[in-house]
Write a structure and sequence with these properties.
Elements (H helix, E strand, L loop, with lengths): L4 H10 L6 H13 L6 H10 L7 H13 L3 E4 L7 E4 L5 E6 L5 E5 L4 H11 L10 E3 L7
Parallel strand pairs: 3-5
Antiparallel strand pairs: 1-2, 3-4
Helix pairs in contact: 1-2, 2-3, 2-4, 3-4
Bound molecules: zinc ion (ZN) (3 copies).
The site of one zinc ion has 7 residues, from loops.
Length: 143
Amino acid sequence: VDATAGELVDALRRAGLRITAPRRAVCGVLADATEDHLTPKEILERLRERGLGSVDPSTVYRTLDTLSQVGLVHHVHLGHGAGVVHLSGGVEHQHLVCEVCGRVEDIPIDELRPMLAHLESRYGFVADGLHFALSGRCARHVE
Ligand SMILES: [Zn+2]
Ligand SMILES: [Zn+2]
Ligand SMILES: [Zn+2]
């Protein structure tokens, strides 16, 4: 289950950040995004839509960093370019990104554990398994 905006604010407070209106608003945007995976730039746009056009990007980054450190927000690269963030929902997941239609599907990381374990035992490589999405074609395009 994803954290609520209030729980995110509490986590920031526990991490020692001062709770300001912009930080509270970032928590609100994240909590409302549900299915969306947002870049920091998109978060700034949503803040602007909420009448907070003057929020400093560094405030957004700092807030996201802190929420990542406490495990409430995940950062992932779905394709080229900037990483996106979304609430972790308490379940670690990997992302399947369709190169044809752009659809993003979340799958539980547990389903990839056998492959990750294989990489470690065979190659001594400890993959984080989450930082980059898997790209390919989704079921809609199978002939
Ligand atoms: Zn990254
Ligand atoms: Zn597709
Ligand atoms: Zn996700």
